């Protein structure tokens, strides 16, 4: 497994820079509008059971940022744990490890680790995510969606909304947008309607985003821009790498001893659950 990870990450990292041009993110921006969406989704395409997550869309004057709030909170916990471990290691001379028993990661479980930036001036979006322990990014045209705006209207979440449809990555989508909030934004990669998307769902009932809260920030808040560099790759290369081994990064952390368990039985159970999850049918938001 470790060799497999290094072959995968090494192959992606060795790609020439010309393989994909990813626009640079604006160095700074201020969040002026924040939309919180509740995402209901099916992880198994063969079963009706659903899960949910809370997604955040931050809108500034130069770009927007979309991500899972659980990912944000979970990353904050892990970052704090790493800092604590680093401080303790510096003082004691021991190795830096994380005691998983002291981190309630389960409270912030998410299936979505990606961060999506939409940059209107560049007419592109930037998709950032991890493969194993590596950070990668690819770009897509912001205007790639062909929307059909229909006359149907409805009141949703307290807003007067209008229906629109489109097709993206193998799924047919129905959106309800409101002209009362005249920004061309929406969840995930969806963009380009004459108003904020209030509700978005695919016709197969696998993914549904519903606006839970919208607020105009009373004072400017800096939008967080990733400090670490991500390797630029094409979308096809990224998807191929992601599909090769979703567990590679976890296995590598286990092999390095960065994750510590209280007992051997706890580690065995953890690994068994990971193997079982890997065997389940998947239902990605993008089918092609």
Task: Please tell me about this protein's structure.
It comes from Hymenobacter cyanobacteriorum. This protein has 288 residues and is of the alpha+beta class. It has one domain. It has helices spanning 2-13, 69-92, 235-244, 248-256, 264-279, and strands spanning 30-41, 51-59, 64-68, 98-99, 115-119, 124-131, 134-141, 148-156, 159-168, 171-178, 196-202, 207-222, 231-232, 259-260. The strands form two sheets. The chain has a twelve-stranded mixed β-sheet with strand order 8-9-10-11-12-1-2-3-5-6-7-13. The two termini are 26 Å apart. 23% of the residues are buried. Mean pLDDT is 83; it is low at 1-7.
Keywords:
disordered N terminus, two-stranded parallel ribbon, 288 residues, twelve-stranded mixed sheet, GLPGLI, alpha+beta, GLPGLI family protein, signal, globular
**Alpha carbon gyration radius:** 20 Å
Structural class: alpha+beta
Q: Reading side by side through the largest sheet, how are the strands ordered? A: 8-9-10-11-12-1-2-3-5-6-7-13
Let me know the number of strands.
14
**Distance separating the two termini:** 26 Å
**Would you identify the regions where 5 or more consecutive residues have pLDDT less than 50?**
1-7
Largest sheet: 12 strands, mixed
Query: For the residues shown, what is the average pLDDT?
Result: 83
Number of domains: 1
Helix/strand order? HEEEHEEEEEEEEEEHHEH
Residue share in helix: 10-25%
Q: β content, as a range?
A: 35-45%
Q: How many separate helices? A: 5
Principal-axes geometry comes out as: globular
Organism: Hymenobacter cyanobacteriorum
Signal peptide: 1-19
Biased composition (Basic and acidic residues): 262-275
Pfam families: Porph_ging
């Amino acid at each position: 497994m470790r060799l497999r990870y290094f072959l995968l990450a090494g192959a992606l990292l060795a790609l020439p820079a010309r393989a994909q041009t990813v626009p640079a993110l604006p160095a700074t921006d201020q969040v002026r509008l924040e939309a919180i969406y509740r995402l209901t989704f099916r992880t198994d395409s063969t079963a009706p059971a659903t899960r949910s997550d809370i997604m955040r869309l931050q809108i500034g004057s130069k770009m927007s940022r979309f991500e899972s709030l659980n990912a944000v909170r979970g990353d904050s916990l892990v970052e704090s744990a790493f800092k604590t471990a680093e401080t303790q290691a510096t003082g004691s001379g021991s190795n830096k490890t994380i005691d998983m028993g002291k981190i309630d990661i389960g409270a912030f479980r998410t299936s979505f680790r990606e961060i999506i930036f939409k940059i209107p001036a560049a007419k592109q979006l930037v998709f950032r995510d991890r493969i194993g322990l590596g950070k990668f990014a690819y770009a897509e045209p912001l205007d790639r969606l062909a929307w059909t705006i229909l006359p149907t209207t409805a009141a949703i979440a307290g807003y007067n909304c209008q229906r629109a449809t489109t097709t993206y990555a193998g799924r047919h989508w129905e959106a309800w947008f409101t002209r009362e909030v005249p920004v061309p934004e929406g969840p995930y990669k969806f963009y380009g309607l004459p108003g904020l998307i209030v509700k978005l769902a695919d016709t197969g009932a696998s993914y549904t985003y519903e606006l839970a809260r919208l607020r105009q920030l009373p004072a400017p808040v800096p939008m967080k821009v990733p400090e670490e560099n991500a390797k630029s790759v094409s979308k096809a290369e990224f998807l191929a790498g992601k599909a090769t081994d979703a567990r590679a990064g976890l296995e590598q952390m286990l092999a390095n001893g960065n994750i510590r368990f209280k007992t051997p039985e706890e580690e065995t159970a953890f690994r068994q659950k990971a193997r079982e999850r890997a065997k389940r049918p998947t239902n990605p938001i993008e089918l092609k």
